[in-house]
């Protein structure tokens, strides 16, 4: 449970028109959040059922959201807050949500997109706003919001109403929609192709990022021949150095080189360079050269 999600739960609880029972899927309060993750107090006076796949704090009923035991048209309000990312088959879960909701029933789904892996016990998905719009497609009315960078939001929010095509939102729900708009951005209000949006979010965006990656890739492709040419020159230089080192080693180990060194030592012993005779010898040798 995150602060912003808990705040949304509070707003939903204040919507008096919601049908009962209120069913929370993913109600298990993980260690360390036993009290913090309890959103039941926001729905006081309403029939509330906490469901999860495992028993523990906050769980009234064991349920697999992919195949719930609730009867058709039996649930008034269904909450899946930071839950769908932990469901292996999210499409099955949303079909079940539609099945068990009463006509006029309300579903609220919240999940993460830009968020670390968090198991509890498994973490499968990250949802874009468009993904929530798709998951809520069977509902006759749906609203999708997000919080954070439009190209990589940290939180995605979806509301859906089960009813007929001309059904109106339950009284009071318009207030929830208005309050959510004040806290988040509506997907319906975003034009992802708008230049102004790119200007407002120049970094960490899908479009802008791909363009930059493409530019970098092109720059690298142009540099590659130069790098290959430089590597070839370095290899030639290294080969020349190795050849010279080999030739020098051969010279130093040859008989002639040993004789030259021996003669230099003999000369230095007979005619030391620092002596007067040695200086005369060096002067004569330079003239002869």
So what's the overall shape?
A: rod-shaped
Here the CATH topology of the largest domain equals: Rossmann fold
**Terminal-residue CA separation:** 92 Å
Strand pairing plus helix content: what structural class?
A: alpha/beta
Helical content stands at 40-55%
Whole-number tally of structural domains = 2
State the low-pLDDT regions, or none: none
Instruction: Kindly report the spatial arrangement of strands forming the biggest sheet.
Output: 3-2-1-4-5-7-6-8
The total beta strand count reads 8
What percent of residues are in strands?
15-25%
Determine the mean pLDDT.
87
Number of helices: 8
CATH architecture of the largest domain: 3-Layer(aba) Sandwich
What integer value in Å does the Rg equal?
39 Å
**H/E element string?**
HEEEEHEHEEHEHHHH
Major sheet summary line: 8 strands, mixed
Which superfamily, in CATH terms, is the homologous superfamily of the largest domain? Answer: Vaccinia Virus protein VP39
Notes on the structure:
- It is a single chain.
- The chain has 289 residues and is of the alpha/beta class.
- It has 2 domains: 3-191, Rossmann fold (3-Layer(aba) Sandwich), CATH 3.40.50; 222-288, no CATH class.
- It has 8 helices and 8 strands, in the order H-E-E-E-E-H-E-H-E-E-H-E-H-H-H-H.
- The protein has helices at residues 3-13, 90-100, 129-135, 173-183, 195-200, 206-252, 255-270, 276-288; strands spanning 22-25, 48-52, 61-62, 75-81, 101-112, 141-149, 152-161, 185-186.
- It has an 8-stranded mixed sheet.
- Strand 6 and strand 7 (152-161) form a beta hairpin.
- The longest helix is centred in the C-terminal third of the chain and has 47 residues, at 206-252.
- The termini are far apart.
């Amino acid at each position: 449970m995150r602060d912003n999600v808990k705040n949304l739960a509070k707003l939903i609880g204040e919507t008096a028109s919601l049908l009962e029972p209120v069913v929370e899927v993913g109600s298990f309060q993980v260690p360390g959040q036993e009290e913090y993750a309890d959103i039941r107090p926001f729905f006081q006076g309403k029939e509330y059922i906490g469901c999860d796949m495992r028993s523990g704090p906050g769980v009234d009923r064991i349920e697999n959201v992919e195949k719930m035991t609730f009867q058709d048209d039996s649930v008034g309000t269904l909450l899946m807050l930071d839950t769908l990312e932990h469901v292996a088959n999210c499409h099955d879960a949303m079909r079940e949500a539609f099945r068990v909701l009463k006509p006029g029933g309300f579903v609220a789904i919240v999940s993460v997109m830009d968020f670390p892996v968090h198991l509890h016990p498994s973490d499968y998905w990250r949802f874009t706003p468009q993904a929530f719009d798709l998951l809520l497609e069977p509902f006759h009315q749906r609203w999708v919001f997000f919080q954070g960078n439009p190209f990589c939001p940290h939180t995605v929010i979806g509301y859906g109403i089960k009813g007929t095509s001309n059904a109106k939102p339950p009284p009071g729900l318009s207030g929830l929609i208005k309050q959510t708009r004040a806290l988040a951005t509506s997907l319906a209000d975003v034009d992802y192709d708008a230049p102004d949006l790119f200007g407002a979010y120049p970094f960490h965006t899908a479009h802008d990022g791909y363009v930059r990656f493409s530019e970098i890739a092109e720059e690298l492709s142009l540099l590659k021949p130069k790098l290959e040419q430089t590597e070839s020159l370095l290899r030639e230089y290294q080969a020349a150095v190795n050849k010279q080192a080999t030739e020098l080693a051969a010279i130093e180990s040859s008989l002639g080189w040993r004789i030259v060194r021996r003669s230099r030592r003999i000369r230095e012993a007979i005619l030391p360079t620092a002596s007067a005779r040695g200086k005369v010898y060096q002067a004569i040798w330079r003239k002869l050269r």
